[in-house]
Amino acid sequence: MERHFDAELKELHKEILKMGALAEEAIFKSIEALKNRDKNGAQEVIDTDNRIDELELAIDERCIDLIARYQPMAGDLRFITTGMKINAELERIADLAVDMCQRVLELTDKPLLKPLIDIPKLSNIAQKMVRDSIDSFIKKDVDLAKTIVLSDSQADELRNRVQEELVNDYMARDSSTASRAVPLLLISRHLERICDHATNIAEDVIYMVEAKVVRHHLEELG
Amino acid sequence: MERHFDAELKELHKEILKMGALAEEAIFKSIEALKNRDKNGAQEVIDTDNRIDELELAIDERCIDLIARYQPMAGDLRFITTGMKINAELERIADLAVDMCQRVLELTDKPLLKPLIDIPKLSNIAQKMVRDSIDSFIKKDVDLAKTIVLSDSQADELRNRVQEELVNDYMARDSSTASRAVPLLLISRHLERICDHATNIAEDVIYMVEAKVVRHHLEELG
């Protein structure tokens, strides 16, 4: 019984790792499509999102099934319920990649506005935060999780910079840029939201391991 | 034992209802602050968000504790895990109200742009969707839940209309409006995201009751 449970828990690890990899890949492909003004690439991310949705449901079912069949005690139960939360966060991250690709589709028909400011940099941060957050969960690595929570403010700053530049240097100077600047502004917000989801995952990991609430109490980490 | 479990389940109902009421109130107050250019009102929503955060954690703990102590079977287990998900959605809805209030604070220093287009209407839809979604959960009312899922496209349309009007009739005509139009545009997006969260709740309710996946398969509902 115990051995079966451990084997099934390993399967859960694997599926969550896969979910994380798919979400990260979706972010990467979205920004590639943006850089290359690649309509097909953007459409592909939108079209394959259902794979991630299906995996989310499968993971959810596995978690409920694990709880129902093995009635795990405190530590394992908390690992599984945390897995359910992380699963939901990852599905949302993938949805935000779809949102970005919809913005890309809006942009590809219009003349190029200009280089993408700090959007590619913000995307790199987002991808790393997602990858690290899943790592911190699987390895129960609280130190890594804390690093992620602290790095979220970096993403906020970068997003603000992108937004200010688009509003002040483009839209406020030349009204004809509005319809191209707005999608870029939204992409920077989608990326920053992805970082928020990675931060939620990291906070859940810290809570799972330390049974200590850091969520909404960032200052405690400093 | 059975009786204790039922009593504790009732407490869970109550707490989730309270969480829903707080989230709905936060949306209402945000839009009031926007309408009245009320800095203090906006700040109040931001400052009291921690009450909602604390309630979220308390509900989460209650759910895990209920599972660990009573090891409920299929139906009850699914009700509790659905409650955990709904709890997370409500906390995010409240966060989006905080986001809206931050936009309000950005706006109150600047001259009024113009009436708020369809934003108050969108807010009414959002509040109703949140209220109905929690109702559908407590009453396990699948018909109500399906109505919510179907009404989400109405919110999408309204959001698109607000966005197009702000871009085409303001930003693209008069570049000096950009810094005031962008926060309004973002508020319309925050509201639409609130509707998405209410839709997630409704989809979770349908799945809980019918064990049928409607998430990501809207067409089945029509």
List keywords for this structure.
homodimer; 222 residues; mainly alpha; Methane Monooxygenase Hydroxylase, Chain G, domain 1; 7 helices; 0% strand
CATH level-4 homologous superfamily of chain A: Phosphate transport system protein phou homolog 2, domain 2
Mean pLDDT of chain A: 92
Kindly state the number of beta strands of chain A. Answer: 0
The level 1 CATH classification of chain A is Mainly Alpha
The run of helices and strands of chain A is HHHHHHH
Our estimate of the beta-strand percent of chain A is: under 5%
Count, helices of chain A: 7
Describe this structure in words.
Two copies of one chain form a homodimer. By secondary structure, the first copy, chain A, is mainly alpha-helical. Chain A has seven helices and no strands. Chain A has helices spanning 2-35, 39-47, 49-70, 74-108, 119-138, 142-171, 178-210. The first copy, chain A, is elongated, with a radius of gyration of 19 Å. The model of chain A has no long low-confidence stretch (mean pLDDT 92).
